[in-house]
Amino acid sequence: MQPILQVEDLHISFRGEDGDLNPVSGIDFRVHAGETLGIVGESGCGKSVTSLAIMGLLPKGIGRVSGGRILFQDKSIADMSQTDLQKLRGNEIAMIFQEPMTSLNPVYTIGEQLGEQIRLHLGLGKREARERAIEMLRMVGIPRAEEIVKEYPHQLSGGMRQRVMIAMAMSCDPKLLIADEPTTALDVTIQAQILDLMRELKEKRGTSIIFITHDLGVVAEMCDRVVVMYAGQVIEEAAVRELFQNPQHPYTKGLIASIPSLHQQQRRLNSIRGTVPHPSAMPGGCRFAPRCDYVRDECSRIPPLLGVGEGHKCRCWLVKEGGEEHRGSFAAGT
Amino acid sequence: MGGLWKQCLRIVLVLFGISTIAFFLIHLSGDPVLLMLPPEATQEEIDAFRHQMGFDRPLSEQYVNFLVQAVQGDFGKSLKFHQPSLDVVLERIPATLELTLFATLLSIVIAIPLGIYSAVNRNSLSENLVTVAVFLGQSMPIFWTGIMLMLLFGVKLHWLPVSGRGTFAHLIMPAFTLAVWVAPTTLRIVRSSMLEVLQQDYIRTARSKGLAEKVVIYKHALKNAAIPIITVIGFQIGKLLGGAVVTETVFAWPGVGQLVVKAIYTADYPLVQACVVILALIVATMNFSVDSMYRYLNPKIKSG
Question: Residue ranges of the ABC transmembrane type-1 domain (chain B) (predicted)?
């Protein structure tokens, strides 16, 4: 199966006050048609920056792709002209952002904001675009869609606004949808509704989705495959079931262990000690080493991303190629 | 509806305050009678004139009379023109409005594109050039700019008429002088307002929809940046009317500004008062219109 999106050895650098920072240093992943790929990691691990790079939207003059490439349907994003990119954005690749409260323009009506994109990419007239906008709003479960198109963002709740964002993103039938923490800012009940909606849309339309989140619960519910990122690198990649049943990297294990369980009585929540290193102070070897309970001598060198099983890769000295897990204190720790 | 009444009341209060200040400033700044009569006038003539003008009554009574008449649109006869002052002022109003409105338009045409340009190309060489131009424009005294333009385009190059009003060519130099004076302030507000808006999430959304950068900036960003910009343009019109006093004098532009300067020199009290009140009315109305534009620009104000 041909992947719709390939990210190969992607490096992103940002101009900082004292020298360049590299929030993303060498990540690889692929998204296949109809697949939902989860990208998981703590804030600051480079997942949002990666999504902006896919859209060609890194802040001008500050951030840039400094290595590797991004191929969308076998065409390199970096080689595209601004005009080509504009034809891609909102049309073939669409994006939903974390903050529904601030992601819609406060001074234009919902209908105008949906309509301008539909007119631009689908070449529809004003009236047809309006009809399509109403149809999209109905599809994402917004009641009284005919009236909502005349309203302004501040007249809607956060959940409604995120539905509008989804309607907007889906309005031109994109092949790839990038959802950057789409439910993080919402109430839990609304969160569940939005996730249901996205799953339903995906099944109906066969859209590929990159689902960026720090919430493993959401990943388990939404994704087919998961990429775990840490400090600008991919540290583990696996099918979602495999990842939860057989996590390899100490960081992934820590993440999974930190999900509170309903079945076990716990006094304290599990957590991973320490914080993500700042891009200006990356450890030389394994980037997780300073927080890792299983750190050893080899960890002062950068571990390679090794295949450890069917579609399962891990970046750790403690695991061996082919899935032969290194025995020792490591196994006892889980 | 309540808002409209409040606005009207505010305008009335402003006019009352301004005319009161003008009245007392004028009456406390010397004896007009001595200025108005020829030096060889006898004491009897002086007394008679003073009585005729009502200057011999107590100040408080003169003030009440002034107010009662002013409310009826009567500011007294101009001492120089021997016509009702208000008529003299109203006759000059079109010239001043023409000058200030054209200057405002010109300043907007200069400030908005340059302000946006310097916000979008932050920290570039060309942005620094704009900053230098802003600095120069703000520091040049208005009469000096006027005289320099006059020297260059009027006296040396003979491109434009040096003074007076009549054709469009007459309007260019005085309007440009005023525009150069106010545009830098507008430009700086445009720049800072755009810089803030361009960082907002909805701008990222607009880009992610595939809109051209021009549409992102002029449609999505500019309308959000507009409220502070409109506010400052509204204030600038007040400032322009003040600047018009100088500019009209420099370019012999027959407007209210030139009139008020002449009226002050000749101690034409009724005329000064009429000028001040009318200018204040224009400024207050301008601010009122700015407030109404907020409603159009920000849907939250409309419904709130």
Answer: 93-290
**How far, CA to CA in Å, does B268 sit from each of A3, B261, B274?**
86, 10, 10
CB contact under 8 A, A105 and B202: yes
Q: The dihedral of CA A95, A100, A105, A108: what is its sign?
A: positive
What's the CA gap between A207 and A55, in Å, rounded? 16
> In this predicted structure, what is the pLDDT of residue A321?
65
Query: Encoding tokens for residue A215?
Result: 């919430």
B297 touches A at CB < 8 Å: yes
B210, A102: Cβ pair inside 8 Å? Answer: no
Could you tell me the CATH superfamily of domain B85-303?
A: MetI-like (1.10.3720.10)
Is B300's pLDDT higher than 80? no
pLDDT reading at B74 higher than 80: yes
Token pair listed for A114: 């949906």
pLDDT of A328 strictly over 80:
no
ipTM (interface predicted TM): 0.86
Instruction: Determine the distance in angstroms separating the CA of B104 from the nearest CA of chain A, rounded to an integer.
Output: 25
Out of B201, B297, B299, closest to residue A97 by CB? B201
Three-state secondary-structure class, residue B170: helix
Where do the CATH 1.10.3720.10 domains begin and end in chain B?
85-303
The answer to whether the CB atoms of A57 and B207 lie below 8 A apart is yes
pLDDT digits (tens, 9 = 90+) for A273-301: 888 888 788 888 899 988 888 888 888 89
Query: Minimal Cα distance from A119: which residue of B?
Result: B211
Residue A231 token pair: 């400090």
Q: Where do the H-state alpha helices sit in chain A?
A: 47-55, 82-88, 100-103, 110-122, 126-139, 145-148, 158-170, 188-205, 216-222, 240-245, 250-257, 329-332
B209 contacts A116? CB cut-off 8 A: yes
The residues of A whose Cβ lies within 8 A of any Cβ of B are: 55, 57, 61, 82, 85-91, 94-95, 97, 99, 102-108, 116-117, 120-121, 152, 154-155, 165, 168
B39 lies within 8 A of chain A by CB: no
Mean pLDDT of A177-184: 90
Q: Does the domain formed by A3-229 have CATH 1.20.1250.20?
A: no
Residue type, A37: L
Q: How many beta-carbon contacts under 8 Å exist across A and B?
A: 76
Which residues, other chains included, contact A66 with Cβ-Cβ below 8 Å and sequence gap of 6+? A11, A12, A13, A20, A22
Residue among B205, B299, B303 whose CB faces A103 most closely: B205
A222 to chain B, closest Cα gap in Å: 23
Q: Where in chain A is the domain with CATH 3.40.50.300?
A: 3-229
SS3 content of chain B, % helix, strand, coil (to 5): 80, 0, 20
Task: State how far the Cα of B73 lies from the Cα of A148, in Å rounded to an integer.
Answer: 51
Q: Say what the pTM is.
A: 0.81
Alpha-carbon gap: B298 to the closest alpha carbon of chain A (Å): 6
The pLDDT value given to residue A117: 95
